[in-house]
Amino acid sequence: MPKYKVSNFSQPLTIFYILPMFQKIFSLGISFSLVFCYQLPVFADNIVHQIRERGIIRAGYRPDTVPFAFLDENGQPVGYAIDMLELIRQETEERLGKPIDIEFVDLDAGDRFSQIQDGTIDIECGSTTVTWERKKLVDFSVSYFASGTQMIVNRNSDWANAESLAGAKIAVIPNTTNETAIKGFAKDAQFVMVENEDEGWQLVQKGEVVGFAGDGILLQALKKAVGDADNYEIVPEFPYMIESYACSLPHNQSQWRNIVDYSLVSYMQGVVTDVPSSRIIYERWFGESGVTPYPIETMADYFQGIVNGYQWIPVEGRY
């Protein structure tokens, strides 16, 4: 005979034991309902879920930031940052197990963060510098390049190696880290605000400004593209401010950032360890015959410092 048998209890006793049980079940049901209702908006706002549903990553880029992002002869976005976005697309596609495309959205320096915030785009990659102030607006991926604020000037001008820039007329893009850096160094200079790199560079060439302050790596690309490149130089040798580039992402999207960071760290690890596919990307844009030459040894040291902060990623056929 079973030790416990419900039929042996009197009716009042049965109700006494069963009623709390139903109360608990009812309360538990309400709890699950509340949790389910609370989680729905979070699930709906998940970027990876949205990408899975639409099959598209909406990626922002600035078309005036050679060699990071610009338009080729066919009007298609190309550049180092565009290649990073392709690596992110491939990793996203592999994890979701379905074809994923990229929809490119043309941005400028003034609206790149607002379009992340309002959900117009899922990610922005280019020559965007990580700052504490910007982190209040957007999240950032791991850094995948570093440069610094410098000026491009006429080699024969009196300002090329001047210790003071007081009174100098300098072009700069507003609301950028370049503006912050050059204004901090040249407090008594006159500043001319321009919309993009091309406009600032044209003012230098026309002699309307002493120099154009921008990211050194972007200034190198502008200089290389003209026939009289020897007439210009980039100063100072050591930048006014060092800047780390990263992709901009929406806040509170850890799953999406994990995919992005994994893609970028895998690439940088490949550069450090001579994986051909990674080296090809770097050499395409920064090799001796690339768009803007930049020593791979220097950047590999930077990459190594970042890669050291993450778990090693196995590469098939190598390690």
- Main sheet specs: 6 strands, mixed
Extended strand count: 14
Instruction: Tell me the span between the first and last alpha carbons.
Output: 65 Å
**Structural shape:** globular
Could you state the CATH homologous superfamily of the largest domain? Periplasmic binding protein-like II
Indicate the structural class. alpha/beta
> Secondary-structure element sequence?
HHEEEEHEHEEEEHEHEHEEEHHH
Tally of helical runs:
10
Low-confidence stretches: 1-44
How confident is the prediction overall: mean pLDDT? 85
Strand content: 15-25%
The CATH class name of the largest domain reads: Alpha Beta
CATH topology of the largest domain: D-Maltodextrin-Binding Protein, domain 2
CATH architecture grouping of the largest domain: 3-Layer(aba) Sandwich
Total number of domains: 2
Cα-atom radius of gyration: 27 Å
Helix content: 40-55%
Task: Produce a short descriptive summary.
The protein is an alpha/beta fold and 319 residues long. The protein has helices at 11-44, 47-54, 80-96, 112-117, 177-185, 197-205, 216-224, 254-272, 276-286, 296-307, and strands at 56-61, 64-65, 69-71, 77-78, 101-106, 123-124, 139-140, 145-154, 169-172, 190-193, 211-215, 232-235, 241-245, 248-249.
